[in-house]
Amino acid sequence: MAKAPKLRLLKPALKPLGPQLKPATDRRYSSPDYKRWYKTAKWQRLRQVILVRDNYTCRMCGRVLGARGEAHIDHIQAHRGDAALFWAEENLQVLCVPCHLSVKQREEKRDKCHRIAREEGWLE
């Protein structure tokens, strides 16, 4: 009986795209360490302090928030990983979900676009 032919391994036709999609030197694509701060007990305590300070009321529309998940704690000035700004009580406010996801996020996105354009030299 004849032996079956051996199978050859084929070279992969595609190369990994990781480094090309996420340059290590570009800050915009790096994984921020500050995201872990949101999962700490310290943040949960601070969040509760801010909710009580603002009487569970959205600072933008004045809506009183009661149910769990209705309130977002927002950084008035974007911290961008600055620990002092992240933890500063005077930099925090209560917003309802609609205000945070629409008005505030639109403002932050516009500011981010302008900042990137200045860094790239598109704006003076």
Structural features, described:
- The protein is built from 4 helices and 2 strands, in the order H-H-E-H-E-H.
- The chain is mostly helical.
- Strands 1-2 form a two-stranded antiparallel sheet.
- The N and C termini lie far apart (79 Å).
What layout of secondary structure does this protein have?
Layout: H1 18-21, H2 41-53, E1 71-75, H3 83-87, E2 92-96, H4 97-120
Antiparallel strand pairs: 1-2
Keywords:
124 residues, mainly alpha, two-stranded antiparallel sheet, 4 helices
Please state the average pLDDT score.
Answer: 78
Give the helix proportion (percent range).
Answer: 25-40%
Number of helices: 4
Got a strand count? 2
User: Looking across the biggest beta sheet, what order are the strands in?
Assistant: 1-2
SS-derived structural category? mainly alpha
Beta-strand share of residues: 5-15%
Main pleated sheet? 2 strands, antiparallel
Overall 3D shape: elongated
The CA-CA distance between the termini, in Å, is 79 Å
